[in-house]
Amino acid sequence: MTGYKHPLEEKDLWSLNPEDRSHRVVPQLVCRWNAECQKVKRAEEKTLYSPKQVPHSEDKDGRAVEESEILIVKNPQKTKEPSLLWALCLTFGPYFLISCLYKIIQDILMFVGPEILRLLIRFVNNSSAPSWQGYFYTALLFICTCVQSLILQKYFHVCFVSGMRLRTAIIGAVYRKALVISSAARRTSTVGEIVNLMSVDAQRFMDLITYINMIWSAPLQVVLALYFLWQNLGPSVLAGVAVMVLMVPVNAVIAMKTKTYQVAQMKSKDNRIKLMNEMLNGIKVLKLYAWELAFKDKVSEIRESELRVLKKAAYLGAMSTFTWVCAPFLVALSTFTVYVLIDEHNVLDAQKAFVSLALFNILRFPLNMLPMVISSMVQASVSLKRLRVFLSHEELQEDSVEHKAVAGCESLVFFLLLLTVHIPEGSLVAVVGHVGSGKSSLLSALLGEMDKLEGTVTVKGWVAYVPQQAWIQNSTLKENIMFGQERRDSWYQCVVDACALRPDLEILPAGDETEIGEKGVNLSGGQKQRVSLARAVYCDRAVYLLDDPLSAVDAHVGKHIFDQVIGPQGLLKDKTRVLVTHGLSYLPQADLILVMVEGQITEMGSYQQLMATEGAFSEFQRTYSAVDHTDNNGETHTYTELYTATVSVYHGCLLEIPGVSTVSKLSQMGKEDKVPSKKAKNPEVGKLTEADKASTGQVKLSVFWAYLKAIGVLLSFISLLLFLAHHLVSLFSNYWLSLWTDDPVVNGTQPNRLMRLGVYGGLGLTQGVAVFGYSLSMSIGGILASRYLHESMLYDVLRSPMSFFERTPSGNLVNRFAKEMDTIDSVIPSIIKMFMGSMFNVMGACVIILIATPLVAIIIPFLGLIYFFVQRFYVASSRQLKRLESVSRSPIYTHFNETLLGTSVIRAFGEQERFIRESDQRVDHNQKAYYPSIVANRWLAVRLEFVGNFIVSFAALFAVIARESLSPGIMGLAISYALQLTASLTWLVRMSSDVETNIVAVERVKEYSDTEKEAEWKQESSSLPPGWPTKGCIDIRGFSLRYRHDLDPAIHNINININGGEKVGIVGRTGAGKSSLTLGLFRIIEAAEGHIFIDGVDIAQLGLHDLRSRITIIPQDPVLFSGSLRMNLDPFDSYSDEEIWRALEYSHLKSFVSSLPNKLSHECSEGGENLSVGQRQLLCLARALLRKTQILVLDEATAAVDMETDNLIQSTIRSQFEDCTVLTIAHRLNTIMDYTRVLVLDKGETAEFDSPSSLIAQRGAFYKMARDAGLV
C-alpha cells in the first residue's frame, strides 16, 4: 500500500531475515569451497610429492611451499579442478530441494484442467445429463486452478530467495578472494573483469536458479501431456511427437551457436569497459591533448564488433522464436492431419479437438522453456568457469614474512638478488638508488606482497605501510586517518600537527569532516601523501615501511615532517623505520643506509662509513650535493621524487599539486566550498560526489518515445503490423477449427474435411511467416537503437567539461556503459517482444470468450477493474523497489574498486576483516531492496491468478447455463482459451512492469545529454593561419577565472605579455593559482573575464581542438593508456616511425625501448603500470617532442624523476625547444634560474614579473624563496 501512496524510500524497507544476511550466507560457501580446494590439493600432493618431501618445506600450515613452486614447472598435465558447482550445491541444495516438491505437485495439477474440460464438453453434448454435474465440474475447475496458483507461487518464492542468497554468497566470496590474491594473479585479471564477476556473473546465477527445475520438470510435463493425448487421439499423436523431436536438434544447434556468440560478446564488452575505465581516469589528459576523437573511435570500433556479434545472435534468435511459436501449431496440424487421414471414420469432434488443443497449449510452455533454460545454463556455466578460475587464483603466501617476537635477520631473494640485512629495533634505515632499482620492491617483500623464492624474512611486531602513491578512500578525511582504529583525540590532534595537516584542515570546507572524492580527487598530491602518512602514524605499529612519503610535499614541509615524524626526534623515534627516499639531505641522520642498484644492495652502512668508502654512494652524493647547496641548518632543496599520489594516475583533479608551501589549494579552488566563509564547518559543505539518484514516479512517455525514435519510427510500425497479423491469423485458425468440429457427421465421416484441413494448414503457414518477420524486425530495431544510444552517450560524456568528471564518480559512468548498455542491448528487445505477445494473447482470449458466451460481458469489466488496480499498485511499488535496488548496487562496486586499488595497504594494516564487513553491509543493503520486490511479485501473482481463475469459472458456468444454445465447438474454444488466460494475465503484468523497470536504462543513458557541455571542438568558419601559432607570443589581459560561479576567482586580473621564444618560470606558494593559469590557457576552465591572445588570436574564439592541439603541455601526472607504446605517443597515427624514434632518443628512452622485445608495439598495461613513474614522465616528454608546437607548458613535469634524469630533461628542453615559448611551473627553483623571466603569483594575482637576477636584486618574494632553497 505504502508504495502506491507515495514513492518508496529507504526507510520503508524492512530489514532482511537473519538467514539471508551476508555474514550467515557467505562463510558457508567459503568454507565449502575451501574444503573442495583442500581435497584437490591433497590429491595433487599424493601424486606429486610423496617421493621427494623435503624436510624444511613444511611450514606451520603443513603446506609444501617450495615444492609448489617447482610443481608448476614439472606438472604440465591437467590436474583436477576443484568443483565450485559442488560447493554451491552443498551450500544451497537442502533449502532448494523443497521447491522441487512444490513443482511436482504443481505439474500434476496442470493436467486437471484439460480433463475437466473434457467432462464439460461431454456434459454439453449430452442434453440428458443432470444440471448439477455441470455446476460441480465448474466448482472443481475453480478449486483446482486456485490450489495450483498457490503452490506455484510458493515454489517461485523459494526459488527467488535461494537465488538471492546465491548472489550474496558469490559477491562475498569474490570480495574475500580479492583481498588475498597474489600480485601476479592480480595482473591476469583487470579491475574491470573482476567487477564483472561480481555484477554480471553473480546475476546470471540468480536468474538461472529460478528456471533450473525446468530441466526435469519440463520433460515430466511433456510425458504427462503425451499420455493424455494418446488416450484422446490414439497413435496419431506420434506424428506430433515426431515434429517436436525434430525441433529439438534445430534448437540445440541454435543454442550452441548462441553460446559462442555470447562468449565473443562478453570479450568485446570486457575490452570496451576496460578502455572506458581508462579514458574516464585519464580524461584530463585526453582533453589537454585533444585526443577525445581518437579514443572515441577506438571505443566505437570495439562497440561495432560487439554489435556485429549481437546482430548474428539476433538472426538466430528470430529463427528460434519462429520454430518455437510454430511448434505447437505444427504439432496440432500434423496430429490432426494424420488422425483424419488414417481412417475415414475418425471424426474430429469438439471433445477431441479442444482437449487436445488445451494439452498442446500446456506442451507449449515446457518446450518454450527448455531452450531458455539451456541457454541460461550455458551462460551460467561460462560464468561458473570464470568464477572458478578467479577463486582458484594463487593467494599470497601467508608465511613469506614471519612476525616473530625477535628481530631476526632478513635475507630475501627475488628481484632483489641475494640480500642479507639485519635491521636492529628502533633504527631508521634509509634506502636510496636510481629510478627502478628495486627500492619499492624491497618494501613489498617485507610486506609479503612478492613471491618468495628462497630465504626468510622475519619482521618483529606489526607493520604500518605508506605506499609511494597514496591510497585514499572515498570517505571523510578523519575516517581516512583513523582507518578503523578507535578514537583517541589527543593522539589524533598530535598526529595531524606532526604531519603538517593542520593548515589544510583549516582550508577544507568542513575541516576533517570533509568528504574526500574517489581516489582523493579533491586533495593535492602533497595532501594525499600526508594523509596517507598520518594514517600510518595514527595506527601506532612497531615497524614502519615508508615508500618515499616525502616526495610529493614541498621542501620545507618535507623537513617539518622529517623532524616531527620520521627523524631521530620525531613521533616514531622508538620504532623501526625503513624509509625509501630521494632526498639526500635526510641521509646524514639515518642509522643505516642501503644503496640499491638493479635489485641488489651494493653498499650498506652509516652515512659516515659510506662517504669514507669512496663507492658509488659517495660519488652520487658529490655530484648532487653541488646542486644541493646544503644550508647551514641542513635544509636542502633536493626536491624529492614527486609522485603525484593516487593509485595509478587516477587523478582528474584541478588541483595544483604541492606547490612551495603547505597550505593546500583546496578551498581556494573551492572545489567544493559552497560557503564562501572559511569558518563555516558544517559537514554538508564537505560533500562532493553525487550519489546515483533514484528517479521517482512513472517512467515518462518521452523515454519510450526516445527509444522508438532510436529504433526508427517506420521499423517500429512495421513490427507492430506483423504482430497484429500473427495474432489475428492465430485466432482465426482456432475459430476455423471450432467450425470444423461442428460440421455435421454424414455416415460416420465429415464430408469436406480436406478443405477444412487445407485452410487450417494455410493459416498456420501465414502465422509462421508473420512471426519470423516481427521477431527479426524487433531484434534489428533493438540493435539499431542500442548503437545509436551508445554513440550519443559516449559523445555526450566526452563533450562534458572537467567539472562534470569531478562531480560524478567514475563508478556511475562505468555502470552506465556496462550495465545499462547491456540491458539495452539484450534485455529490452526481447522483453518488448514478450510484452506485445502476451498483450495480444489476453485480448484475443477475451474476444473469443465474449463471442462464445456473451453473458461474460457482465463480469469482464468488473474483473478488469480489479485487475487494473492490482496492476497499478504493484507497478508503483515494484518500479520504485527496482530503482532503489539499482541505486544501492553502485556502492557495492565502488567500494570493491576502491578495495582492489588499495589491497596492499589494507593487508599491511591487517584491516581485511573491517573491509569485508563493510562490503557485506553494502550487499545486504542492496538485497534489502531486492527481497521486497520478490515478495511483491508473489503478492501480485496470487491476486492475478485469482482474477484469471474467476474468468475461467464464469466462462464454464455460463456455458453450463446456456448449454441449449451453444455448439460444443464454440464452447470448447472458449474454455480452452480461458484456461490459457490465467497464465497470459500474470505474464502480461510481469512483462509490463519489466518493460517499465528496464526502460529506465534508456532514461539513465539519456540523462547525460542534458548536462552542460564544453564549447565546440571545431569552429566551422575558423580563419586560423595554417601554421598558427608561428611566433608564440602570449598576451594575457585582465584575465580571471573561477572554478564555480558561486566562488571567488582563483586568479584575477592578470596582465602580462610574453614574447615569442621567451622562457618563463611560474612560481608561487601552493594555491597561488599556478595550475589555474595553465588550465585557463587550455580553456579547461573558461575565463570569467579578460582575454588571452596567442599571436594576436583571441583563444576564446577558437574551437577547443584547434586550440589544444596547437599548444603542448607536459602534465603533472604522467598518464598512459593500455595499448601499444606507439599508440600512447601518437594515437592518430600521424607521424612516421623515424620521427617517433627521434623523439624517444631526445627523451632518453631510446635504449630502454629498443631493449623491449616488441619495441614500439610494447603493450602498456592499465594506467601504464608496467613502466616506472619516471619512465612514464619521459614518455610524456616524448609526446611533447613529437608535437613540437610553438608553445610548451611544463606543469612540474620533472618532479617524479631523480636529479640525473631531471638534468637530462632540462637540457633536452633547452636544446629542442630553443625557439619556442616555454612556460614552466617549477618546484625546484634551480631549474628556472636561467630563464628569461619569472612570474611570481600570490593569491591569484601577479606579485612580481621580471628576470630572475633583477628579482633577486629587489629582495622581494622571489628572493625569499631562493634563499629558502639555498640558491642565494
UniProtKB/TrEMBL annotation:
InterPro entries: AAA+_ATPase, ABC1_TM_dom, ABC1_TM_sf, ABC_transporter-like_ATP-bd, ABC_transporter-like_CS, ABC_transporter_C-like, MRP, P-loop_NTPase. Residues 396-623, 1036-1268 form the ABC transporter domain. It is an enzyme of class 7 (translocase). Residues 97-379, 717-997 form the ABC transmembrane type-1 domain. It catalyses: leukotriene C4(in) + ATP + H2O = leukotriene C4(out) + ADP + phosphate + H(+); 2',3'-cGAMP(in) + ATP + H2O = 2',3'-cGAMP(out) + ADP + phosphate + H(+); 17beta-estradiol 17-O-(beta-D-glucuronate)(in) + ATP + H2O = 17beta-estradiol 17-O-(beta-D-glucuronate)(out) + ADP + phosphate + H(+); sphing-4-enine 1-phosphate(in) + ATP + H2O = sphing-4-enine 1-phosphate(out) + ADP + phosphate + H(+). One of its GO terms (biological process) is lipid transport. GO terms for molecular function: ABC-type glutathione S-conjugate transporter activity; ABC-type xenobiotic transporter activity; ATP binding; ATP hydrolysis activity; glutathione transmembrane transporter activity. Its main location: membrane. Its EC number is 7.6.2.2, 7.6.2.3. It comes from the Eukaryota. It is a multi-pass membrane protein. The chain crosses the membrane at residues 84-105, 135-156, 208-230, 236-256, 313-342, 354-378, 710-737, 757-785, 842-870, 940-962. Pfam families: ABC_membrane, ABC_tran. Keywords: ATP-binding, Cell membrane, Hydrolase, Lipid transport, Membrane, Nucleotide-binding, Repeat, Translocase, Transmembrane, Transmembrane helix, Transport. PANTHER family: ATP-BINDING CASSETTE SUB-FAMILY C, MULTIDRUG RESISTANCE-ASSOCIATED PROTEIN 1. This is Multidrug resistance-associated protein 1. It comes from Dicentrarchus labrax.
